[in-house]
Amino acid sequence: MTKIKLTSNVPDGPLAEKWTKHKNNIKLVSPNNKRKYRIIVVGTGLAGASAAASLAELGYNVDTFCIQDSARRAHSIAAQGGINAAKNYQNDGDSVWRLFYDTIKGGDYRSREANVYRLAENSNHIIDQAVAQGVPFGRDYGGLLDNRSFGGAQVSRTFYSRGQTGQQLLLGAYQAMMKQVHHGKIKNHVRQEMLDLVVVDGVAKGIITRDLVSGEIQKWAADAVVLATGGYGNVFYLSTNAKNSNVTAAWRCHKRGALFANPSFVQIHPTCIPVSGDYQSKLTLMSESLRNDGRVWVPRNKDDKRKPNDIPEEDRYYYLEERYPSFGNLVPRDVASRNAKHVTDEGLGVGETGLAVYLDFRDAIKRDGEDTIRARYGNLFAMYENITDDNPYEVPMRIFPAVHYTMGGLWVDYNLMSNIPGLFVAGEANFSDHGANRLGASALMQGLSDGYFIIPYTVGNYLADVTPHDVSTAHEAFDTTAKEATAQLDKLLAVQGEKTIIEYHRELGKIMWDQVGISRDQEGLETALSKIRALREDFWKNVRVPGKTNYYNKYLEFANRVADFFELAELMALDALDRKESCGCHLRDEYQTEEGEALRNDKEYSYVSAWEFEGLNGSLQTALHKEKLDFEFVELKQRSYK
Amino acid sequence: MSLMTIHLRIWRQEHKDAKGQFENYTLDKVNEHMSFLEMLDVLNEELMKEGKDPVEFDYDCREGICGSCNMVINGRAHGPKHKTAACQLHMRNYKDGDTIVIEPPRASAFPVIKDLVVDRSAFDRIIEAGGYISVNTGAAPEANLLPVEQETANEAFDYATCIGCGACVAACPNSSASLFTGAKLAHLNSLPQGQPERDLRSIAMVEQMQKEGFGDCSNFAECEAVCPVGISISAIAQMRRDYLKAVVRN
């Protein structure tokens, strides 16, 4: 283990003044010097696009990279429900403090107070920024902004654009970014995948990419690198992530020395369309906003084979409403998912597989009329009907939990800089703000808070002490790193085995879902570890990757990403094994309250686990560093949504 | 659940300058609940096991929102189902023994990269030319200072839902990008925030569209018919008005 001192760099002072004070104290780069610096931004989702646009507006030269054919297609586009902000337009008692408190409580007290408070502070600016860009949020009859409710909160603070909030916010950020492309401040590189980070004397100085059309390996030097490459939910094979979402860029940074924090913290979203067959390639989310009006239930009696509409009220078990009377159907995601698992484990599940529960709009339609429900959720209902061939206006939806979001990610300090100087990490790719569970409508908030309102300050603070262009791609580190990236691709193509990449990925995903999923225990995690190692070894002996490196070859891209998922998977299981407590999404069967809720152990586990890569030799060699979480301003409590 | 035999005729083209051709494939045991792209995944698994090159096609979210997929299925962009992207199309729309022809969108502004994958960067350049409201980060006023009539906001939203897939171009006999460009203009030009740059935006985007080699609109309305999110062709009418007014005023 190397001597890494984890310093959060959280400023002193009262919680509400920390960020303001920090902004007043950090170093600035003068306007005529900004144009001397070059910054690389990898990923063009909400965090990447907003960071790139804001940095370019300040005068820095920015290179953006994305794997899609256009920056607009990053997976933030698929976020449905909304974005939180503490505007208190509803006069229902909301405030920055309450948004902060709900978020840190929702995360089961496993995140940094100061980061979360700053997120809540920035939330209001995000709404202002988006509205000014022309993001068409839902409005009331008076033309003012409307809100809806989301899980884990007792106020209505979620701003939305029907069921396409992520799309509208991303297009706002993308358009701001494209304006800077037009002005020559951003060079936008599409269909380019980051394969490695170039570190010179311990400092991030550039990246290696593969041009996905020509296959060419390219070198890019910069004064700072901002990684905004999203989460790693696709390690489970089936998830709500886009098919191309992957961990490769983050994982390669990890292998170059960046610590990976809380890798086992994975959000399993309670409302997704259930799996229907082996050929299934992904899972589709049904927005949490549906729980505003939909009621979750299962038949009260096992083997009740009646059609849902034929089951009378007394035989319906509205388990969330019964178990959690004050939050009801709007409990946080981890609680809703766990309860869905409980009732299906008890044999009360519905549908062909028994792995589903009902989400029923009958009462809402009776109360508000079909037109009102259509106006709120029309596109979601259409999507559901398209996939399942059932009409949710007439029969209840069938839903089941699915992997959705990863709270874990690369470790960053208060400035969103990793332990490698010059490498910043934003959005879902970092571990920063959601602790052990993310509340709904908080991912868009965090991505944009990082990109619009934090990175532009903190990157400047870092660059103030950096000589511009002190390293070019002529430095030998670029050559060495590029050769290593190429070697892995060649190695993959050389195997020429019998099994396809998808077969391996699906098997890996099954191990992860069964043993590193909704609930975990020591025995299962140990089994998972040996299975992952064995399957990884087999992968490198028997995978078949088609074609060559020097042209468009999507399955080669996949193979390279699956190879990294195999390594990450082991780290996730190790992290889950280390944390001998339950918290948020991380439910260890051994540690539960009498009521089956997550039982934290604050005395021993109130820390961020930050793992250091030390090598791979049959098994992953890794060292655990702990960042202790201190709570000065909130009192740690057992979460209760009763 | 029923299983079907499906015959496929798919456009194969090695690279941009290669001569392409259709190849025939047959799949047995296609499950009706499969999505169209999952059916192609299964084909590719079989091809790779036989040591052949898989069919390349663009996709990402598979939820109909990212706009990556844009293949032309039996002559229709995104296939037979109204207001449905190819990734949201399911095999229950086909029957046992059907033959399905799959090809890339054909337009000179969208050159083929490989098989069904095309280069749509022309769309990015149209947005780059003026598809935004200029407001630097931090310069925005309090959001509720500017009420927007609900009807206006809803209309802007309807145009803003364009996913940028390019089906409109593929379906148009002139390969026009008018629906794509018109949708972005209608979104931004109808909002009060979009007024200061309205003329500049209208001229810049329309002229960029022409520069990219897209054809003119002759009111065939094929674009509206295939649009997976149902963007109305009235966007094009508004674009023409806005462009003409802008040219006259400037």
Keyphrases for this structure?
heterodimer, A: 642 residues, alpha/beta, Flavocytochrome C3, Chain A, domain 1, Methane Monooxygenase Hydroxylase, Chain G, domain 1, 17% strand, globular, B: 250 residues, alpha+beta, Ubiquitin-like (UB roll), Fumarate Reductase Iron-sulfur Protein, Chain B, domain 2, 2 domains, five-stranded mixed sheet, two-stranded antiparallel sheet, 8 helices, 7 strands
What does this structure look like?
The complex is a heterodimer of chains A (about 650) and B (about 250). Chain A has about 650 residues and is of the alpha/beta class. Among the domains of chain A are: about 270-405, Flavocytochrome C3, Chain A, domain 1 (Alpha-Beta Complex); about 475-600, Up-down Bundle (Methane Monooxygenase Hydroxylase, Chain G, domain 1). Helix content of chain A is about 35%, strand content about 15%. Chain A contains 17 helices and 23 strands. In chain A, a hairpin with a 2-residue loop joins strand 6 and strand 7. Chain A is globular. The mean pLDDT of chain A is about 95. Chain B is an alpha+beta fold. In chain B, strand 1 and strand 2 form a beta hairpin. Chain B contains 8 helices and 7 strands. Chain B has 2 domains: about 5-115, Ubiquitin-like (UB roll), CATH 3.10.20.30; about 120-250, Alpha-helical ferredoxin (Fumarate Reductase Iron-sulfur Protein, Chain B, domain 2, Orthogonal Bundle). Chain B has a 5-stranded mixed beta sheet with strand order 2-1-5-3-4. A two-stranded antiparallel sheet of chain B has the order 6-7. The model of chain B has no long low-confidence stretch (mean pLDDT about 95). The N and C termini of chain B lie far apart (about 60 Å). At the A-B interface, helix 3, helix 5, helix 6, helix 11 and helix 12 of A face helix 1, helix 2 and helix 3 of B.
